[in-house]
Amino acid sequence: MKRCISSSRRGTVAIFAAMVLTASGSVFAQSVDQVLQAEQRRLTLAQQSQERINKIVERTRSLEDQYRAINKEIDGLRVYNRLMVAQTDGQGAVLEDIALSMEQVDVINRQIFPLMERMIDGLEQSVKMDVPFLMDERTMRIDKLKAMMERPDVSVAEKFRKVMEAFQIENDYGSSSETYKQTLTLEDGASRDYNILRIGRIGLYFQSDDTHITGRWDHESRGWVIDDSARNEIRKGLRMAKQLIAPELIIVPVQAAKPLNAPESAASTEGS
């Protein structure tokens, strides 16, 4: 009887222990799940915090880069402004020089117009008193200069250039020779074409195509006179001026300068 009771007790204790163990295991499992869940929440919060930190760092870096770029741009603008100020100061000085030059130009214009008028008048008188070669061409050049002086569409510089160009052309006549055709009226009153030979400004000669009539310009009488003394030399000079033969020395009559009051004499000149 006692053995049965003891066995029953042991069975009851075992069952109770099993129940206790089962209950403890359930409680332990619940605690572990809670711990795992808490850890998962902690990890999630940590990840979220890290993401916020990363975004803040990125914004900070972006702002820092923008700050550096803006500072660099400001430095460039400071250099640019300094250069612009220097350039503006230089342009101001240039404007002052231009204003002064414009005032001087007005003064020069008032002075240069009378000067050019006197130059043209002097050139006209020189042509009238000179050996009468290419008179139509030279007179027309002077007439064009006079007409140009009245044109408002031609600048002062261009007018002065044209006047100086005319003087240069006249100056070049003194160191050149040429031949051309011209109609002359001689002592017999007949007019015909002659070959004209100009040697600088020291001599102007004419000869017919058949070389039967040869003469020269007489500066004292201001007329054409027949002079056959240098017929062959004049013919040779005409051929040299036309570049038909090589240049060589020719001897032609040259009229002495007026102030010397000397008679005509033979002079040597080299044709070109």
Give keywords.
272 residues, alpha+beta, 5-stranded antiparallel beta sheet, 4 helices, 16% strand
Summarize the structure.
The model is unreliable at 260-272 (pLDDT under 50). A hairpin with a 6-residue loop joins strand 3 and strand 4 (214-218).
β-strand number: 7
**Overall geometric form:** rod-shaped
- Into which percentage range does the β-strand content fall? 15-25%
What class would the helix/strand composition place it in? alpha+beta
Q: Report the helical percentage.
A: 55-70%
How many helices in DSSP terms?
A: 4
Q: Tell me the strand order in the biggest sheet.
A: 1-2-3-4-5
What distance separates the N and C termini?
174 Å
Overall pLDDT, averaged? 81
> Using only CA atoms, what is the Rg?
59 Å
**SSE ordering:** HHHEEEEEHEE
**Main β sheet profile:** 5 strands, antiparallel
**Unreliable residue runs:** 260-272
